[in-house]
Amino acid sequence: MDTLSNFQVSLDTIGKDEWNRLLGQFDDALIQQTWDYGAVCWSEEQLSHLLLKQKDVIVGMAQVRIVKVPAIGKGIAYLRWGPLFQARNAEPDAGLLREIIGALQSKYAADQGHALRIMPNAFAGTPRGTICETVLREAGFTVAEDNSVYRTLLVDLAPPLEEVRRKLEQKWRNQLNQSERNQLTVTEGTDDASWQTFEKLYCDMMARKRFDTTVSIKDFGAIQKTLPAELKMRVFIASAAGEPVAGIACSFLGDTGIYLLGATNEAALKLRAANLLQWEAMKKLKQLGIRYYDLGGIDPESNPGGFHFKSGMSGQDVSQLPAYDFYRSSSQRLMLKTAFKAASAIRAWKVRRHKKEVAAT
Q1: For residue range 128-141, what is the model confidence (pLDDT) as tens digits?
Q2: Which letter, b or e, does each residue of 42-51 get, where b requires 16 or more Cβ atoms within 10 Å of its Cβ?
Q3: Which of 41, 88, 99, 102 has the lowest tally of Cβ within 10 angstroms?
Q4: Any idea where the domains of the chain sit in the sequence?
């Protein structure tokens, strides 16, 4: 353990169970920083875990993926949607973020010789976003050259539930009213049976629609299976006459719930089941005291139908901060550029592979 002023930094001294338990202490926690997500989507061997302590209290965390260049032993330390530094029910602290960014630079760049990429979990124009942008630039980071920025709609759940409902667009609210008259039954669960019901709906939908996506339902199923109970994705299923017609899977961590996956069959559209499921998710978030609902990304050009549906929930159109790079040489800069260009090509390959997976299901 190293000491930075009155802070202590430790690297890879924690186990999976303790890491996942500590996530509950942070408002900026999210599923991508769970140990299980990293192990499934990358590999457990590539994961590194940094902790920042102040007077024996954990005040910062970062799950980092290390990708090394063969024969060199150095490569890229990639922190996606982190670090975590905003304590539960507290305002983001710029001084605290400076400490953890400094620790990341010290451990991964100076000590291990890696280039460092950080994609903050923060939206542009928010207090947390402004702090992240300022601190990263002060620390010598530059905006990544190959950026694609996550854009979504963010529903504010702070007002009373009646007001949240009144803010829904009129047509969307009318469809919700219709769905509530259609005698649909909604169940919520984190158990294996709930996930299996949802997965079947999802695979049937994908076989029918065959749209492009990098999402692997099998990966999310593997993550769900190993996540501890308190961190599991919540599955909402709408059924008509006892038959499942639609489902959504959401992650409820930190101060923001995230809509991750959705599935419908042909009967669901007429029944307006998707409207009812989204409303039930918002009600649950409100009940749990979670402030925001991230509607899972928007792309008005390539998916106008999804954008139109999500727009009806009257969320604020927001964009995540870009990724930021820290490197010490032109060769490290070239390595970052080349590596993430290759990653884009791999994502395109995954789209093609996913189509084959669905077709074979």
Answers
A1: 999 999 999 999 99
A2: beeeebbbbb
A3: 88
A4: 2-149+321-360, 153-317
Fold topology of 153-317: Aminopeptidase (3.40.630)
Cα 236 to Cα 339: distance, rounded to the nearest angstrom: 38
Model-wide pTM > 0.85: yes
Q: pLDDT tens across 72-127, in order?
A: 778 899 999 999 999 999 999 999 999 999 999 999 999 999 999 999 999 999 99
Q: Do 2-149+321-360 and 153-317 share a fold?
A: yes
Gap between the Cα atoms of 324 and 133, Å rounded = 9
Closest CA to 69 of 350, 348, 328, 332: 332
Parallel, antiparallel or unpaired: strands 75-80 and 243-253: unpaired
Q: Amino acid identity of 237? A: I
Alpha-carbon distances, residue 205 vs 210, 264, 265, 266 (angstroms) = 8, 6, 6, 9
The low-confidence residues of the chain, meaning pLDDT below 50, are 3, 358-361
242 CB-near residues (< 8 Å, 6+ apart): 185
Which residue is it, tokens 């998707």?
274
